[in-house]
Amino acid sequence: MRPKQYHVTDTELLVLQVLWDRGEATTREVCDEIYPDGSTSQYYTVQKLLERLEKRNCVQRDRSQRVHVFTAAIDRETLIQERLRGLSDTLCGGSIIPMLTGLIQMRRWTASEQEELRDLLDQVAPRQSPND
């Protein structure tokens, strides 16, 4: 079964990044983070973004206090995986290899990053011994 897809716009992603970084925030706190000298219309824009994200189960709202507090209902890794899956489907016909090749060849990797990648590969697909 395919995981649930979260369609998040770039502006909604800004809101989620604030929630991921802070853990929780009010509408005002999110607005102040995104628009430091924000206007009333920008406050209402953030409020609308939070409402849309809540409807799609991307954020949760604590209504127990007078000022509502929001938290992210999805984590950064889940959204990254979803977006990469969408790119893979769109650009590579569902194959992950061309995308991985492109990501790996984008820049030079440090020795520690290379080791992290090897460890990750070993976790998802342990190497078989020659006797297997």
Which descriptors would you attach to this protein?
132 residues, mainly alpha, Arc Repressor Mutant, subunit A, two-stranded antiparallel sheet, 2 strands, 58% helix, WH-like_DNA-bd_sf, DNA binding, transcription regulation
Provide a descriptive summary of the structure in words.
Belongs to the BlaI transcriptional regulatory family. GO terms for molecular function: DNA binding. This is Penicillinase repressor. A two-stranded antiparallel ribbon has the order 1-2. It has one domain: Arc Repressor Mutant, subunit A (Orthogonal Bundle), CATH 1.10.10. Helices cover 58% and strands 6% of the residues. It is mostly helical and 132 residues long. The model has no long low-confidence stretch (mean pLDDT 89). The protein has helices at residues 10-22, 27-34, 40-55, 76-92, 97-105, 111-124, and strands spanning 59-62, 69-72.
Please state the overall shape, judged from the principal axes of the Cα atoms: elongated
CATH superfamily: Winged helix-like DNA-binding domain superfamily/Winged helix DNA-binding domain
Spell the H/E element sequence.
HHHEEHHH
Widest β-sheet, arrangement of strands: 1-2
GO molecular function: DNA binding
Family: Belongs to the BlaI transcriptional regulatory family.
InterPro entries: BlaI_family (IPR005650), WH-like_DNA-bd_sf (IPR036388), WH_DNA-bd_sf (IPR036390)
Keywords: DNA-binding, Transcription, Transcription regulation
